[in-house]
Amino acid sequence: MLSLFSLSLLGLPFVCHKSFFYSRRHIYYRSHINATVDMVSAAWYAGWHAEDFPLANVSWDKYTHMTYSFAVTVPSVHNVSLDGSDAEVLPKFVAAAHQNGVKALVSTGGWTGSRYFSSNVATEENRTAFVKTITQFATTYDLDGIDFDWEYPGNQGIGCNVISSNDTSNFLAFLQELRADSVGKNLILTAATPVTPWKGPDGNSLTDVSAFAKVLDWVAIMNYDVWGSWSSAVGPNAPLNDTCALPTDQQGSAVSALKAWTAAGMPAHQTVLGVASYGHSFHVDALDALECDDDSSVLAAFPAFNASQQPIGDKWDDPAGTDVCGQTTGPGGNFDFWGLIDAGFLFSNGSVASGIDYRFDECSQTAYVYNRTSEIMVSFDNADAFAAKGEFIKANNLRGFAMWEAGGDSGDILLDSIREASGFDDDDDC
Ligand SMILES: *[C@@H]1O[C@H](CO)[C@@H](O)[C@H](O)[C@H]1NC(C)=O
Ligand SMILES: *[C@@H]1O[C@H](CO)[C@@H](O)[C@H](O)[C@H]1NC(C)=O
Ligand SMILES: *[C@@H]1O[C@H](CO)[C@@H](O)[C@H](O)[C@H]1NC(C)=O
Ligand SMILES: *[C@@H]1O[C@H](CO)[C@@H](O)[C@H](O)[C@H]1NC(C)=O
Ligand SMILES: *[C@@H]1O[C@H](CO)[C@@H](O)[C@H](O)[C@H]1NC(C)=O
Ligand SMILES: *[C@@H]1O[C@H](CO)[C@@H](O)[C@H](O)[C@H]1NC(C)=O
Ligand SMILES: *[C@@H]1O[C@H](CO)[C@@H](O)[C@H](O)[C@H]1NC(C)=O
Ligand SMILES: *[C@@H]1O[C@H](CO)[C@@H](O)[C@H](O)[C@H]1NC(C)=O
Ligand SMILES: *[C@@H]1O[C@H](CO)[C@@H](O)[C@H](O)[C@H]1NC(C)=O
């Protein structure tokens, strides 16, 4: 029998025989994960970062779906707007995705763009009009699908969203009408969700989302921003687990989110794990950041931080300013994974730079870095954190992952890590 080594000596292009190995991997999936569905390897592509992260830089061959962000809701139910997301890039995005065999979706809403979902779906008349708006938008741009990133039905998001206690039932009625539409029936319909099921009319999480499962292809659980500048201490941006944390530190995680959504009737194979290629920064006094362990100093868990000295993140960070609601906001403090490299926290291969303190939290399976001079601590996901999430996806038969955002990674360090761990075939050698 020829070894792989001798095959390559013979000059056989085994390494690049993608289709052979790819289809074998599919057979593996089909027998072990689900006989009828293909895995999802997805990311959101932020239209407003197209200049810094051009379409040509997307590793299309590592994705099955890519979602352009955002088409924001506007006061009129007859339109959505690409203002702020570079409308001119969208047709090129769709063309590039299709050239690469990747499904092209557009995400509607987002943190700043969810203001008018509630009124758009409030009445039968508006739902019918909004179905027409969405299907025409999908047809105009030749999209394969639409992602609904309503933050959040039945629960205020940014602060000035229209909101109604009937939001979730109206959302469902809208999705059902969209699914029944002649265009809508062929679209991939997904939703980006909070870590707990959407709120019902009583303000509590829905206990039955099975009707949503019938009309959506999948939900992508946004398991990030769990801890940030609004929190009481420095905690994990994107915890894999929190049932191992102190009760007061159980703010959500992939483990608890999957449990909550599946208990409410969303099958695991219709659940995609939302993962973050960015982290949150905090100003932490060195006295709080470090504790003694024998003779050396180690980073403390859940230290206090000084909110009045919120660091500014990388150049993609939101600067201090005024939001769409007219409220004054501080800097976001976000560092993309590449931004942590740029700022000297990490080497370009993603490992911790010399002179930087590091902690990998075993419960959340996420990383922390700290610069004693600037007193900046960042909670983020590194390759090990992404590998742990990939293993979780595989072990629990999730549909796959979706990363916010495609351009946050550096040299595919994160993407390759989660793909490999969740069982996708990587062909880096080609
Ligand atoms: C596989 O996916 C199909 C279609 O979504 C679903 O009906 C079925 O229950 C899934 N099977 C398992 C074992 O998860
Ligand atoms: C885009 O790709 C080019 C060519 O490989 C590379 O030089 C550049 O650094 C990349 N930019 C980003 C933002 O990834
Ligand atoms: C809808 O919005 C787009 C820009 O996003 C604009 O070009 C178009 O004129 C608008 N259509 C209507 C009917 O308002
Ligand atoms: C229906 O949509 C229109 C905008 O096109 C909006 O003005 C109106 O308030 C909506 N109806 C409800 C009940 O929210
Ligand atoms: C919610 O829907 C019910 C039934 O359609 C209706 O009677 C009620 O007025 C609605 N409530 C709100 C706040 O729109
Ligand atoms: C989460 O933590 C609980 C409690 O420590 C543990 O039993 C479980 O195995 C952990 N799950 C994962 C995926 O790490
Ligand atoms: C937080 O930072 C501000 C501004 O530098 C400073 O005035 C304040 O004393 C700090 N608070 C604490 C608790 O260290
Ligand atoms: C830590 O921050 C200081 C001040 O911003 C900076 O000069 C230094 O290069 C940083 N250290 C490392 C190892 O990046
Ligand atoms: C990452 O890069 C640093 C600095 O160049 C180097 O010291 C380290 O060995 C590299 N780590 C790995 C795993 O390659």
Automatic annotation (TrEMBL):
Q: What is the lineage of its organism?
A: Eukaryota, Fungi, Dikarya, Basidiomycota, Agaricomycotina
Q: Name one Pfam family in it.
A: Glyco_hydro_18
The record's section on SUPFAM superfamilies has: (Trans)glycosidases, Chitinase insertion domain
Provide the GH18 domain boundaries: 39-425
Statement: the UniProt record of this protein carries the keyword Hydrolase: yes
Any one of the GO CC terms? extracellular region
> InterPro entries of this UniProt entry?
Chitinase_II/V-like_cat (IPR011583), Chitinase_insertion_sf (IPR029070), GH (IPR017853), Glyco_hydro18_cat (IPR001223), Glyco_hydro_18_chit_AS (IPR001579), Glycosyl_Hydrlase_18 (IPR050314)
Q: Where is the signal peptide?
A: 1-17
> Which species expresses this protein natively?
Grifola frondosa
Provide the GO MF annotations for this entry: chitin binding; endochitinase activity
Q: What is this protein called?
A: Chitinase A1
What does the UniProt keyword field contain? Answer: Carbohydrate metabolism, Chitin degradation, Glycosidase, Hydrolase, Polysaccharide degradation, Signal
Q: Which reaction does it catalyse?
A: Random endo-hydrolysis of N-acetyl-beta-D-glucosaminide (1->4)-beta-linkages in chitin and chitodextrins
UniProt gene name: chiA1_1
Biological process terms from the Gene Ontology for this record are: chitin catabolic process; polysaccharide catabolic process
**Family statement drawn from the similarity comment of this UniProt entry:** Belongs to the glycosyl hydrolase 18 family.
